[in-house]
């Protein structure tokens, strides 16, 4: 069969690899004894997850973000997730998540009442107040959490124990 047009035919006698090639060093690869070292703990060599402080920030700032994004009625979602996922692992996180959850549930209920009564006018004021209170105190709690300080929410009731 003729070579394709524009191509070159193979050299006469076929192809042979170039002389020489790679010669492996005697004794093989000299790896450091013990293999690779484990990464230091600050690079994930520790427990493999985020610490209590980070979960606490998610707890409080997540409540404020949920209230902001949902119009004042969804701030309870992030504290509930933190309590259910980390509450059995850390008593401190459970305590902080329960405080945030109680506060956000109360103000979510007030926000729902505000939405329900918005047709008579007063509900708009109630909803705006619930929205602002949930966001402002959630941010204050998040700032306290960033300094590893526990925070007790004002204007809260104990619904979850």
Q: What is the mean pLDDT?
A: 82
User: What characterizes the major β-sheet?
Assistant: none
The arrangement of helices and strands along the chain is HHHH
Number of contiguous helices: 4
- Gyration radius (Cα, Å) is 32 Å
Principal-axis shape: elongated
What helical percentage do the residues reach? 40-55%
Q: Uncertain segments of ≥5 residues (pLDDT<50)?
A: 43-48
Q: How many strands appear in the DSSP assignment?
A: 0
How far from one another are the termini?
A: 86 Å
Roughly what fraction of the amino acids lie in strands? under 5%
The SS-based structural class is mainly alpha
Features:
50% helix; 0% strand; 161 residues; mainly alpha
Give the secondary structure arrangement, pairings included.
Blueprint: H1 52-70, H2 77-86, H3 91-116, H4 122-146
Helix pairs in contact: 1-2, 1-3, 1-4, 2-3, 3-4
Report on this model:
The chain has helices at residues 52-70, 77-86, 91-116, 122-146. The chain is mostly helical. Helices cover 50% and strands 0% of the residues. It has a domain at 52-146. The N and C termini lie far apart (86 Å). The protein is built from four helices and no strands.
Concise overview:
The chain has 161 residues and is an all-alpha fold. It has a domain at 52-146. It is built from four helices and no strands.
């Amino acid at each position: 069969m003729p070579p394709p047009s524009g191509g070159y035919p193979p050299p006469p006698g076929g192809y042979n690899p170039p002389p020489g090639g790679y010669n492996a060093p005697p004794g093989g690869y000299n790896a450091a004894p013990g293999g690779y070292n484990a990464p230091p703990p600050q690079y994930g060599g520790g427990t493999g997850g985020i610490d209590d402080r980070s979960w606490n920030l998610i707890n409080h700032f997540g409540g404020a973000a949920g209230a902001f994004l949902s119009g004042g009625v969804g701030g309870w979602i992030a504290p509930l997730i933190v309590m259910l996922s980390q509450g059995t692992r850390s008593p401190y996180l459970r305590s902080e998540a329960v405080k945030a959850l109680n506060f956000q549930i109360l103000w979510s209920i007030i926000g729902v009442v505000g939405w329900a009564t918005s047709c008579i006018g007063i509900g708009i004021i109630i909803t705006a107040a619930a929205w602002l209170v949930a966001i402002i105190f959630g941010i204050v709690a998040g700032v306290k959490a960033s300094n590893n300080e526990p925070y007790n929410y004002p204007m809260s009731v104990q619904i979850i124990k």
